[in-house]
Design goal:
Length: 451
């Protein structure tokens, strides 16, 4: 309970302190809460259930990731503090978003989860519209709200139908459906998972994500890639438990669409010229693999999906932070203009290599372990997915190498100002993203105790 009310308590004191002290205390508080929440991890997969709180290992891992990414958001967004661009308002928005996400990951009721799922859009939209850099952020905000609201409205109808048929909306109890026609049951299941597929996002419902990433500030990109996309995967985990029979019966089309979309998104990565757009499309590719793992309805698929959710949350957030470093030194994100950064910032090149290799799935990262498990799970589901997985591996290797080699090698660009980089701050951000990726590889079994 302390974890849930702390962000709200801090909001009360937001306007009573100076922006600098508020910034430092916020960063330290969220950094401290990350290991504190991990210490609460159950040793044998137990759950804590009450009338208002439902905490299991899946919830605690997502809450810990929320705290860590929020702390790193403050470190990466110090330019807002230095330029006096409404730092207190930024802190309030970030605290509100963290509070909503922690509540969403710990609520036992599907209706409460739906409300918090929708409420998370408001602080995200404020971050994009208030601290975005280009006028196109208005269009990005419109895309974000349109996709999320249109996809989520059918879920409200589904929730009301669940309550009328079952008399409860508890996430930890399976729903019983009376005998209905198979087509109606399939439609019911589809409108229930639709908002989570859009949030993840699945290809063909993904157009909001590249626009939001490109126009968002670094904090918005980090929170989107690190936490908000995972809210969709978390919803798929919970709903798949509530509809076990229909998910097993009808998951094949969604699994095929996820893998096909992941391949197409990987191809699109190869033609991007904007660094943030490339990382955004790589997120679509990886989250498509997560969705396929969940839809496989196997223990291996779910274990690999959870591992990749954590791995991608850390790797993609770190890559967006590094992309922001490039932008601060050059005021450009164009891959054609940014070359030779290894000659100016060799230490940052090391972090580019580590995070790019992690995103690629190179050992000894948890990304590699999760992708191997997911590949095995999807192939065991159907051997026809083998060529799709092979193509996806090749494309992922290609765009990760493209991202690293294009920015680090070649003649030094005239657009880069080496005096604009704050190496200590960026070093800390990259280290906090990278170290958990390799530590979790050593102790990855603790993340699968909830299965």
């Amino acid at each position: 309970m302390f974890l849930l009310i702390l962000p709200l308590m801090v909001l009360i004191f937001t306007y009573t302190s100076s922006p600098k002290s508020l910034w430092n205390s916020s960063t330290l508080s969220f950094l401290w809460l990350t290991p504190f929440s991990l210490f609460l991890l159950p040793s044998s997969g137990e759950s804590f259930i009450s009338s208002h709180i439902f905490i299991d290992l899946l919830s605690l891992v997502m809450i810990a990731l929320t705290f860590l990414i929020t702390a790193l958001m403050f470190i990466a967004s110090q330019k807002i503090l230095f330029t006096h661009h409404e730092p207190k308002m930024f802190s309030i928005t970030t605290y509100a978003l963290a509070f909503i996400l922690v509540e969403a990951y710990s609520t036992p009721h599907l209706l409460n989860f739906y409300i918090l799922f929708e409420a998370s859009l408001i602080p995200t939209l404020i971050l994009i519209l208030s601290w975005g850099l280009q006028p196109e952020r208005l269009q990005a905000g419109t895309y974000l709200m349109f996709y999320m609201i249109v996809a989520s409205l059918p879920l409200l109808f589904s929730i009301l139908l669940m309550y009328s048929k079952n008399g409860h909306l508890e996430l930890y109890l399976p729903f019983w459906a009376p005998p209905v026609s198979p087509s109606f049951f399939y439609l019911w299941w589809l409108i229930t998972i639709l908002p989570f597929l859009v949030k993840t996002p699945i290809y063909s419902a993904h157009l909001w994500l590249p626009k939001a990433h490109v126009e968002a500030p670094v904090a918005g990109s980090m929170i989107l890639a690190g936490i908000l996309l995972k809210l969709g995967s978390y919803g798929l985990f919970r709903v798949s438990f509530n509809f076990p029979s229909i998910t097993i019966l009808w998951s094949s089309p969604v699994l095929v669409l996820s893998l096909w979309g992941a391949c197409i998104a990987s191809m699109l990565c190869l033609r991007q010229t904007d660094i943030k757009a490339l990382i955004a499309y790589s997120s679509i590719s990886h989250m498509g693999l997560v969705t396929a793992g969940i839809m496989s309805q196997t223990q291996w698929g779910w274990a690999g999906a959870l591992l990749l959710v954590i791995a991608h949350g850390l790797a993609s957030s770190g890559l967006f932070a590094l992309a922001n470093t490039v932008y601060e030194t050059s005021h450009s994100r164009n891959l054609m203009l940014l070359k030779g950064m290894m000659n100016l910032f060799p230490v940052m090149t090391v972090w580019w290599f580590i995070l790019s290799a992690s995103n690629l799935g190179a050992p000894p990262s948890i990304n590699m372990l999760s992708e191997v498990i997911l590949i095995a799970a999807t192939i065991s589901f159907s051997s026809l997915t083998m060529p799709i997985m092979a193509l996806m591996i090749m494309l992922t290797t290609a765009y990760c190498l493209l991202l690293f080699s294009t920015t680090q090698y070649g003649p030094v660009s005239n657009y880069i100002n080496p005096w604009n980089i704050h190496s200590q701050r960026h070093f800390s951000i990259s280290a906090f993203h990278s170290i958990p990726i390799f530590l979790l590889f050593i102790k990855s079994e603790i993340l699968t105790l909830w299965l």
